[in-house]
């Protein structure tokens, strides 16, 4: 990673503009999703880009959307979305996941995104570490992530929306099982901050 000073901030109403700036610089992320795919379905959600943005904003205002933002100055350059399975029920390959589930984790990390100007500098790892730190300050627990098995073939960042298995292993996660094509279930315990 280059020697750029960064900080981790939670996604809140106060950091919404920085988060929104990152999303807007990238066309709403993944076709205008605004990182809402993993949240519960909402009957009164508006359509398209604007509907996704307004829904995400409402979740943040209600304290039901959480992320670790990697800040460089006043600009968000990466994030890792985290939350309970109730907050983030919509995972890829859900049918297989539920059929093979052996426990319900306390938290999930469902999406990691890095500004294209800051990619290949280690910010996905920083965002994941920030999410784990936030989980620790909230009491810790069992955390699952669903990274990708990229193998030798390079994959587009639009497919590697939650990082790679190697990155999660480096962060202390253990492989649990495969999930769909080139997806995995990985898990680790996070201790409450201040305890071993």
Q: Output the strand order for the largest sheet.
A: 1-2-3-4-5-7-6
Q: Could you give a short account of the major beta sheet?
A: 7 strands, mixed
How much of the sequence is in beta strands?
Answer: 15-25%
- Low-pLDDT stretches are 155-159
Arithmetic mean pLDDT: 90
Helix content: 25-40%
Question: How would you spell out the order of helices and strands?
Answer: EHHEEHEHEHEE
The N- and C-terminal alpha carbons lie at a distance of 28 Å
Give Rg in angstroms.
16 Å
- The shape is globular
Number of DSSP-assigned strands = 7
Tally of helical runs: 5
Question: What is the structural class?
Answer: alpha+beta
Structural description of this entry:
The protein contains five helices and seven strands. The protein has helices at residues 16-25, 48-61, 94-100, 123-137, 165-170; strands at residues 7-10, 66-72, 75-83, 107-114, 141-145, 174-178, 184-190. Strands 1-2-3-4-5-7-6 form a seven-stranded mixed sheet, sandwiched between helices. The two termini are 28 Å apart.
